[in-house]
Amino acid sequence: MLHEQLAIEYQELMVTLEQGMAAYLGLIERTFSPDVETALSGSVELAGGFGVAPETILVTDEKIIAFFLD
Q1: What is the CB-side half-sphere exposure of residue 46 using CA atoms within 13 A?
Q2: What spatial distance separates the first Cα and last Cα of the chain, rounded to whole Å?
Q3: If you ran DSSP here, which 8-state letter would residue 70 be given?
Q4: Which of 38, 46, 61, 66 would give a disulfide with 33, using CB separation of 3.0 to 4.6 Å?
Q5: Other CB atoms closer than 10 Å to residue 42's CB: what's the count?
Q6: Could you give phi then psi for residue 4, rounded to 5 degrees?
Q7: Distance CA 48, CA 60 (A)
Q8: Do 24 and 45 contact (CB within 8 A), yes or no?
């Protein structure tokens, strides 16, 4: 009975892991897209997903210019 319960829990965890990996890989794919707009939005989403403070993410032209040129 314990073996069956652990097998069910393991399957549930594997499904959750696969879903998370699929979402992560989709995000990585967008981040490195040859389309600039897709890559920019993907990189912003990736930064947010990794816990980068929203105020430090380069989401506007002004922030981008300030970061690279100031």
Answers
A1: 15
A2: 65
A3: -
A4: 38
A5: 19
A6: -65, -40
A7: 15
A8: no
What is 7-68 written as a DSSP string?
A: HHHHHHHHHHHHHHHHHHHHHHHHHT-SSHHHHHHHHHHHHHHTT--GGGS--SHHHHHHHH
| The token pair that represents 57 in the structure block | 């993410």
Residue that is written with structure tokens 């989403």 in the block: 45
Domains of the chain by residue range: 2-69
| Sequence-separated (6 or more) residues with CB below 8 Å from residue 54 | 48
Amino acid at 70: D
| Residue 62 in tokens | 């002004």
What is this structure's pTM?
A: 0.66
Q: What is the mean pLDDT of each run of 10 residues along the chain (70 residues)?
A: 95 98 94 92 92 92 89
